[in-house]
Amino acid sequence: MKKLIFFIGVFILLTFLGFVYFIFRDIPKVDDSDLLLSKVEIPKEENAYYPLKEAVSKIYIPPEKIKAIDDIVYKNTWDKEFVEELLEKNKDVFKIFEKAEEYNYFQFPDPDPISYISLSNESKNFALRLSDLSKLVIIKSKYLIKEGEEKEALDLIFVLIKIGHMIEEGFIHDSVIYSFGTQTKNYGLKALIEEVPYLYLSKEESKNYINKLENFKGNKEGLIRAIKGDYMNFLKEKEIVERTLRNEFKKDNFIARFINFPDDIIFAYFSYKPNETKKLIADLYRDVIDKANKDCYEIETKNYKPKVPKSEIKRIFTKNLVGKTIYDKKADNIYTPLEIKCLETLYIEAAKTLLALKAYKIENGNLPKSLEELVPEYFSSLPKDPFDNKALKYSPKAKIIYSIKGEKFFIDF
Fold this sequence. Notes:
Blueprint: H1 2-24, H2 49-57, H3 66-74, H4 80-89, H5 91-100, H6 121-146, H7 150-168, H8 175-195, H9 203-214, H10 220-247, H11 254-260, H12 264-270, H13 274-292, H14 312-316, H15 321-333, H16 336-364, E1 384-385, E2 390-391, E3 393-395, E4 400-402, E5 408-410
Antiparallel strand pairs: 1-2, 3-4, 4-5
Helix pairs in contact: 2-5, 2-6, 3-6, 4-6, 6-7, 6-8, 7-8, 8-10, 8-16, 9-16, 10-13, 13-15
């Protein structure tokens, strides 16, 4: 009987030790060299950040007039006297802004930011004021169109698009900073789309702007740099997690903490596997980069199931719970930049199509029956919907072009 009890005891102990080993063991070190970026320093005299910084520092916008500015930009309200005041008091801002187009590169000067929260106040202010600058540019462009200076208006909008594109392609190493460029570029593209009905360009002028828009497509390199930069920022976050966990377990209070089990961080320490976590996140970022290298219609929509169970009991027995929690938070919105990039491509194709349709109508007095009539006069091939790689949908009767994604662009002319 004693032997039986002894063997049962040994069995229970071995089972427990096996369970502990399974729960607490980690995998070997992970090679993530393919996700690391080398540091690049852009000389100040070539970096568009500095003239843009100067421009945003000089912006004149009365605080009580912020809503009025948004109404002019988004709702097409108009207050000529206020607009002329804005243009007069921001003359130097526009000069510096247009000068920024002449620079070769953009690099945000913050030293390896971990997230938007960790950016300096100066950097946060730059991001907010860049949005204000974009709105001022749109207002000036609208003013120029009303004054019959449509070429000057369009050239200004194209500077805005180019600046946004430059930020996207810049050496920024962070998807948050990348998003500043995307926002700026989309301001310009949407403004262009809204201004097409008021333009009276010749066929040659329209074709010139259509060709220019082609230069702002397909900048996958900048997006991939931003994704890799985010991964490198994750490595810094990982270091902070590990340092925090180590500091929670000093020898003098380890036993007391373990016995009393005062909070979740005790269990977290034992359920965190550095190498396994690194592999989980590295594979996630590799998947994002793989999709970024594909065309939009090739990107498969994938429903990612959370790795952390909802049940508290199951969580207790979940290996690498902390690592899987970090993974779930990353996976929740990590693919968003790809979706935004595809929408941006759609806006470019829509702007090209609308410019061609407007020029066609000016020349012929009516809209074409199909977009095929615009080839090869305006396009070498039909503008495509990036979400299915087929021609944009077009209805001359409904006066609309649209995407399978549901985005609609009305032909208001």
